[in-house]
Structure formats: C-alpha cells, structure tokens
Amino acid sequence: MSLKIRLARGGSKKRPFYSVVIADARAPRDGRFIEKIGVYDPRLAKDSGERVKIDGVKAAEWLKKGAQPTERVGRFLSQITLEGESAPIYTWAAGNNPKKGEPGKKAQERVKERADKATAAAEAAASAAEAAAAAAAAPAEEEAPAEEAASE
C-alpha cells in the first residue's frame, strides 16, 4: 500500500480549507484517510503562523514509514524543523519551473512583430522630424538672399 501525505479539501464554496492527511494513494482526495496531521488555510496571509499547522513529529514518523508528500505538502514540510535539529524534516528538491510562465512560440513571434513595427514607426518619425527640421532650415536660408536683393 503506497501512502501519500496530501491535502484534503474542506470548507464551503469559495472558502477553501485543507486538512493535511495521510492517505492511501488510491483513496479519493476528500475521502478516506488514515490520520490527520495538520491544517492549511490559504485565505490567511502568507506570513501568518496560523496559515499552515503541521505536527512535525507525526509527519517525520510517516516519512520514515515511506509516505510520499505531494508537491504542496513537500513545500510545507521543508519549512518544518524538529526541536534539537537544524535540518528540515523533508528536503523539497523540486522547485519552480521558470519556463512555465513564459509565452508560447506564436505569442513570442507576435511580440517580436510588434516590437519591429514600433521600431520602424520610431525610425519613420525620426526621419520625418529630421526632414521637417531640414525643410524649416532650408527656406530660411533661401529667403535671406531675396531680402538682400530687395533692399539694394
């Protein structure tokens, strides 16, 4: 029998509350479990001490018996240390996937096309501004000789 340390959802609609339980891997998420070892309330602030409460001694015993935590519970267990020990009871090795939040290939192509259009528009505006400045400077030079000829 493979054991999991996982979350069992409770609470009402749009007000989640989870229990950290030891359960058979084949049991349903909110169904039968062997033992409840803690609670997790995601509605509380992340720095709140009441957000995650797990009995570290029971969790360590179940880990020694071969229970495998889920990813979320593994993160919680990696923050728990027992009295007299400096290392956490579980080492969470997974980590965030940095590529998960990146856009796909087509979205990256669209972003590149927009950037190319923006640079082309900026270059066109700059060349138009230069041409306007040159045009404004050129008629002033042409008018000066005409005025000198008229005054003589």
Automatic annotation (TrEMBL):
- Gene Ontology biological process terms in this record: translation
- Regions of compositional bias (Acidic residues) in chain numbering: 140-152
Q: Which UniProt keywords apply?
A: Ribonucleoprotein, Ribosomal protein
User: Gene3D superfamilies in the record, alphabetically?
Assistant: 3.30.1320.10
Question: Which InterPro entries does this entry report, sorted A to Z?
Answer: Ribosomal_bS16, Ribosomal_bS16_dom_sf
Ranges for the region named Disordered are 91-152
Q: Where is the composition biased (Low complexity)?
A: 120-139
Q: Where is the composition biased (Basic and acidic residues)?
A: 99-117
Sorted alphabetically, the Gene Ontology cellular component annotations on this record are:
cytoplasm; small ribosomal subunit
> Which Pfam family, an example, fits this chain?
Ribosomal_S16
What Gene Ontology molecular function terms does this protein carry? structural constituent of ribosome
Q: Which domain of life is it from?
A: Bacteria
- What is stated as this protein's family in its record? Belongs to the bacterial ribosomal protein bS16 family.
Instruction: Name it.
Output: Small ribosomal subunit protein bS16
